[in-house]
């Protein structure tokens, strides 16, 4: 199985980029992981929230296929602990899905079309984080999930 993270907008912080890269490298020992960054919409100040979500949604959907399992990182998604997340990863791997795609939306969330395509929603916290920081938090949790599945000491129970 492949795992892909799609995110809107670039990361401005070199420190965050370095940490994200560190966990991406670590993930490579467990799974084929890729991250695809969709550039911020140009002239978004001239668009309504709905128009911006629609444009971002079209770009997000263009990066997925009909056979992908798509999970949105969404504040109203299912919350779980790290062990529950690792179990969820195992279920996806056992299901035979070829590519599991996680998506971090833009500042206003997702379009109706993206919600309709999604196979699920996951919330990392009830708190709000910047879209740049959530990338790091998510990739770290993905790495943690695989260390849990392998019974490795990274996650202390």
UniProtKB/TrEMBL annotation:
It holds the Pfam family SPOUT_MTase. Signal peptide: none annotated. The keyword Transferase applies. It catalyses: pseudouridine(1915) in 23S rRNA + S-adenosyl-L-methionine = N(3)-methylpseudouridine(1915) in 23S rRNA + S-adenosyl-L-homocysteine + H(+). Its EC number is 2.1.1.177. Specifically methylates the pseudouridine at position 1915 (m3Psi1915) in 23S rRNA. HAMAP family: 23SrRNA_methyltr_H. This is Ribosomal RNA large subunit methyltransferase H. It comes from Mariniflexile ostreae.
């Amino acid at each position: 199985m492949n795992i892909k993270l799609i995110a809107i907008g670039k990361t401005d912080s070199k420190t965050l980029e370095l940490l994200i890269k560190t966990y991406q490298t670590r993930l490579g020992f467990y799974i084929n992981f890729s991250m695809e960054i969709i550039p911020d919409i140009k002239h978004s100040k001239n668009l309504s929230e709905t128009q911006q979500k629609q444009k971002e949604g079209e770009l997000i959907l263009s990066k997925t296929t009909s056979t992908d399992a798509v999970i949105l990182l969404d504040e109203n998604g299912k919350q779980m602990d790290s062990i529950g997340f690792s179990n969820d990863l195992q279920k996806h791997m056992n299901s035979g899905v070829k590519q599991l795609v996680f998506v971090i939306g833009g500042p206003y969330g997702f379009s109706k079309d993206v919600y309709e395509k999604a196979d699920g929603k996951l919330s990392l916290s009830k708190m709000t984080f910047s879209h740049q920081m959530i990338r790091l938090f998510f990739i770290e949790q993905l790495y943690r999930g695989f260390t849990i599945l392998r019974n490795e000491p990274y996650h202390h129970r």
